[in-house]
Amino acid sequence: MPVDLYVGGSEHAVLHLLYARFWHKVLFDLGMVRHPEPFMKVLHQGMILGEDGEKMSKSRGNVINPDDIVRAHGADVLRLYEMFMGPLEAVKPWQASQIQGVRRFRDRLYATGMRPVGDGIDELTRRLLHQTVKRVTRDVEALRFNTAISAMMELLNRLSDLPDPLPREAVRTLILLVSPFAPHVAEELWQRGGYDVEQAGTLAHQAWPTRDEALCREDSVEVAVQVNGRVRGHVVLSHTASEAAARTAALNADGVRAHLAGRTVRKVVYVPGRVVNLVVG
Length: 281
What we know:
Layout: E1 6-8, H1 13-29, E2 42-44, E3 48-49, H2 66-73, H3 75-84, E4 92-93, H4 99-113, E5 117-118, H5 123-141, H6 145-161, E6 166-167, H7 168-178, H8 183-192, H9 213-216, E7 220-227, E8 230-238, H10 243-251, E9 265-271, E10 275-280
Parallel strand pairs: 1-2, 3-4, 5-6, 7-10
Antiparallel strand pairs: 7-8, 9-10
Helix pairs in contact: 2-3, 3-4, 4-6, 5-6, 5-7, 6-7, 7-8
């Protein structure tokens, strides 16, 4: 004690959360536990509604039996779909038509994981790989599972477009990233791909992938262009763009020139990677 994270629905706040906290307070007052609160953090997940947008209930006939989904598509697809539906805390309707999209992701993941791999990796794929590791790690820690899956889909799209052999580093890392979401297919790919010989045994014993922050950084970034403090347009600049280059790009940005007509640029305030502010009079 205390519990690191309590996840429960708001509809159970009294019967579960309040009662648990009450009895913990009693035990604390009696000196039987050391912490005044039972939970370090509380998160209420959103309710999953029926396809009709109403709360699931037998009386309405809109209940979804997960066993049917597992039999039709497999347990991994069910897990992926539930996490991909939307933010954990949002109320979301069940939409059976969208399950096929998640199944296609699972099938493409398997097909890609079974392709030949080699030691080489191109720079674009390497950068996307490290950016994906960063995004998935960040999103898992924040319980944003839907966006974590989106990031893995982008990496899979990249790998699917590459010729054989695929970069071993990228395929291995993708399998590790997807394993908490789709453990069955990930474990099979880990074994069939021969990755288990690195450190004998299941991928569950492997360390989480790490990233190189230098590779996570984009070569260019979209920067806001302000005229007297008000945003009038945007330009794409390199992180190392000089003030002169930023000024030139800002002066020629769409939506900016109209606000400069007949006026003199008296000062340029350039914050690299963030904003170019043209002070005019």
